[in-house]
Specification:
single chain, 24 strands, alpha/beta, about 35% helix, 7-stranded mixed β-sheet
Length: about 575
């Protein structure tokens, strides 16, 4: 029996053109399995051309289900993450024609369902005898999906046990059946292979080193934020926020065994715990800290600001934790209390941020806009709250509405008691894809963006100063090129004023694809095509890894010597992709 666990390609054309042969600037790329909120973003990659450094989450539920099903059934199980492969549709469908799988499992959700239903119909055209099984948040509408589409089965929630049942003959809608804690800690480790192992990446919190291993130390979260997908649909069944949400912890021995195996096999340089909420209680966190002390690699985690003692942050730092993500959602307390149901005191969160920064760790804050019932004035409160915090980086996104969450149930029922302030009023913008919603909100005066650096970040200031100092020192020996005139360039210029006269005198020359032909305080900005004739060192200025990876690829095409490039950021990929 041949079985495919598939995360199919997801490309969106920014404008119409024939086929898939277009540069990265022509595409939005999607992330699906592995993302709590599937969405599309501006691409650095293009179909068939992988560029390292874009946000690329590991598909945890699928990775665990693949190895679990293989062990439990003895089937020949293949895991194919076409998102990580940056695979074209032609390549994907050709693979299906060649392999002719008996079962294909696809994880999907509201933001990608319009796209994925086309994939489903196309797969059925190519392989009419193949049984297609849907998983993911869209399983909340399992009966309707099965009525309208050629689906063999729909598995609700995490799908290790469900996939085994399907491969043993079950069909239809399979209700939630979670692993017990004992089963979870006896399960095989999630699937990785040599092709995809180094591709997964999340640049935040700041300080990551590639290659990065993304793992779980727990499943589930007891909190009931209105928009949050996995605790409502995958690790629980709580679409209206009134049910019980469980948390199951991996034992420290299991986590240590997994880390030793995967780090030993693939040589990871940093570890990111992408739990729904990593720090749910001091005992669990301290156990993982002991593991990480023995592993000896830098690590980071997705956390809440208020679920551990202040001294436990110190234990995390002592064991190698260099940074955390903290979810704030809104900077308006009323919104957090009455719409989000976050149960987070914003002043308590502020104190935690200051403590974490005092310990020398980086902090990435996550915020969302466009909640049901949220006013533009309340959104501006979030902007002001962000400005008041000593964050290193922060993420502002549109709030997507995904099946199976309380936010989606609100649309069906009109009102939810636990979310008394949530209302689908005239200001509410319905867009399931949070990336697309963010782009629409950005058209107004909010100036919302995806991941941003804060110019007040001590961590980033050190990076910008180091870059400026290195350029200044190199310019003493001859002409130097700065490639990339963007945010990080201007921040570097602000931190190292000595660069300005060097640029004015032509000892530091500026190169940028978008701004070529313009001038900066009288200094011309040249096209990168002129770089092959430049004799001095070429410094890459962007902090974002995907930008620098794309620039290195452009350098190779232009014939610029790799030895001439200077990349001072510590998160550059170790292996050439």
């Amino acid at each position: 029996m041949k079985v495919l666990f598939s995360n199919p390609p997801w490309w969106v054309k920014r404008f119409e053109f024939a086929g898939d042969d277009a540069p990265a600037s022509a595409w939005f790329s999607g992330v699906r399995a592995g993302s709590r909120w599937p969405h599309t973003n501006q691409a650095h990659s293009s179909p068939g051309n992988f560029v390292f450094g874009e946000y690329l989450p590991y598909p945890f539920f699928m990775g665990y289900a693949a190895t679990y099903a293989a062990k439990a059934t003895g089937a020949k199980v293949v895991f194919r993450d076409s998102i990580a492969l940056r695979e074209s549709y032609d390549s994907y469908f050709q693979h299906l024609r060649e392999e002719r799988y008996e079962y294909i499992f696809i994880e999907t959700a509201t933001p990608c369902w319009d796209h994925d239903q086309t994939i489903v119909r196309r797969v059925k055209e190519i392989l009419p005898d193949t049984k297609i099984v849907l998983t993911g948040a869209m399983s909340a509408k399992g009966e309707a999906v099965m009525e309208q589409f050629p689906i063999h089965a729909v598995i609700q929630g995490e799908y290790e046990k469900g996939s085994v049942r399907v491969l043993n003959g079950a069909s239809g809608v399979l209700p939630h059946e979670l692993l017990t804690v004992a089963e979870m800690n006896a399960a095989p480790y999630p699937y990785f292979d040599e092709v995809i192992a180094h591709r997964y990446w999340d640049v935040n919190p700041a300080g990551q080193k590639a290659p990065q291993l993304q793992v779980w130390a727990s499943r589930g979260c007891p909190y009931k934020c209105i928009f949050c997908v996995w605790p409502a649909t995958m690790t629980g069944n709580d679409p209206d926020g009134t049910g019980k949400r469980s948390v199951r912890f991996y034992e420290p021995d299991y986590v240590e065994g997994m880390l030793r195996e995967l780090v030993g096999r693939y040589g990871y340089r940093s570890i990111y715990f992408d739990d729904d909420t990593f720090n749910l209680g001091d005992k669990h966190v301290l156990g993982i800290c002991e593991v990480m002390t023995r592993i000896g690699l830098p690590w980071s985690a997705m956390c809440r600001a208020d679920t551990i003692k202040l001294e436990t942050w110190q234990a995390m730092r002592d064991s190698g934790c260099f940074g955390v993500k903290l979810g704030f959602e809104s900077g308006n307390q009323w919104v957090n209390d009455n719409i989000v149901n976050k149960r987070l005191n914003l002043e308590t969160a502020r104190a935690a941020v200051h403590e974490i920064k005092r310990l020398g760790m980086t902090v990435h804050g996550t915020f969302t806009y466009g909640l049901p019932g949220e006013t533009r004035e309340q959104m501006q409160d979030t902007k002001a709250y962000i400005a008041s915090l000593p964050l290193d980086t922060f993420q502002e996104t549109g709030c997507g509405e995904i099946e199976g969450t309380p936010m989606s149930t609100l649309r069906e029922k009109g009102h939810l008691d636990r979310y008394a302030g949530a209302a689908l009023d005239e200001q509410y913008l319905y867009v399931p894809d949070g990336g697309e919603k963010m782009r629409r909100l950005s058209e107004g005066d909010l100036a919302i963006g995806a991941d941003k650096a804060k110019s007040s970040s001590d961590y980033l200031i050190r990076q910008w100063r180091a870059l400026g100092a290195a350029v200044t020192e190199a310019a003493a020996d001859g002409p130097v090129a700065l490639w990339g005139v963007g945010t990080d360039f201007f921040e570097t210029l602000g931190q190292v004023p000595a660069l300005k006269p060097l640029i004015k005198d032509g000892r530091v020359r500026l190169f940028d694809g978008k701004l070529a032909g313009q001038s900066l305080d009288g200094a011309p900005v040249e096209a990168p095509a002129a770089l092959p004739g430049f004799a001095g060192p070429v410094f890459l200025t962007p902090r974002i890894v995907s930008s620098r990876t794309a620039m290195r690829q452009d350098a190779a095409r232009l014939g610029i010597s790799a030895a001439a490039l200077r990349d001072l950021y510590d998160d550059a990929p170790v292996l050439a992709e």
